[in-house]
Amino acid sequence: MILTSFSPNFIDSKCEKPTFSVCMYQSIQEVMINFIFSRYNFLFLRRYSLIKIMKLKNKVALITGAALGYKDGGASIGSSIAFRFAKEGAKIVVVDILEEMGKRTVQIINETGGTAIFIKADVSKTEDVKNLIQSTEDRFNQLNCLVNCAASYEGDIFHNVMDTPEKDWENIININLNGYFRMAKYSIPLILKSGGGSIINISSNAAFHVTKDFCVYPVTKAAINSLTRTLAVDFAPKIRTNSICPGFVRIANSENDRTPEELQEWIDGIAKKYPLKRVCSVDEIANIALFLASNEASYINGQSLSVDGGYLISDTHDF
Ligand SMILES: NC(=O)c1ccc[n+]([C@@H]2O[C@H](COP(=O)([O-])OP(=O)(O)OC[C@H]3O[C@@H](n4cnc5c(N)ncnc54)[C@H](O)[C@@H]3O)[C@@H](O)[C@H]2O)c1
Asked: Does the pTM of the predicted model rise above 0.90?
């Protein structure tokens, strides 16, 4: 700092180019700075973010529903979390029923310097889930983070209770809720064996409010938040469990055969209802998942975090 305060004396103020004496001065300054920070180099560089510390280095994360979405493989919430975690050093187990798109997620991670494997599994089937955990153990011998993200919107489910066919109700419960239970049940032993870790359940703001004629999906999400609290109490302090409750998130599957104009019009209509006047991106959910999985959230347990741009607390929307 003292040296820096002398620096104007060495600047050729007319041409504003460094003179010979400035070069000499700069070399001396560099040597002194190197000397001063040689012992504390690492801490110094860390402090000023010149060295990037990976937040999930040496961790293994399993993410269900992490296939890329829609026709050309755009982002889904699960794949976006997979990419983010891989960038932070985690080895990733990508799980989905969609083999081709699941392998695409893995290919992108492996081609960009990460490590990932794909395991095809249906979370509604106990045998698939058991095999999946066994394969994870065989391959990595550890599991530190489970992200439950797989969910289905299939069937005749946009109805009230009276009109929802029982088989469609049961199918959604079996995937969207029981799938989370099954994944937790069979992965917890491996997480404990690995020294503990974190479970993140992708829930929804639908857990907190009702949309007319859409009954089963919110019921699963409300139950997931309750499951989150149960897990958080039963498996603390070894495992922290939290859920993320997004509002509307734009994913590749939002395209759903809409023309670009139709898609934009639809998204704009939704965005209007949000105080932030835009919808959420998959990256914004991945950031929260990373935070909850990392040590930065080391005292957060059993929470259901709304990531909805203020939707729930505002009166700018109509329920
Ligand atoms: N997109 C949103 O607006 C939004 C909002 C709130 C919550 N969510 C939640 O985010 C999570 C991810 O959804 P998304 O929006 O990325 O949709 P998505 O359809 O792109 O992702 C869901 C994934 O789950 C997979 N899947 C479905 N059934 C499965 C099964 N039985 N076994 C294994 N995998 C299965 C699908 O193949 C798909 O890849 C879901 O839990 C969803 O409820 C989404």
From this structure: no
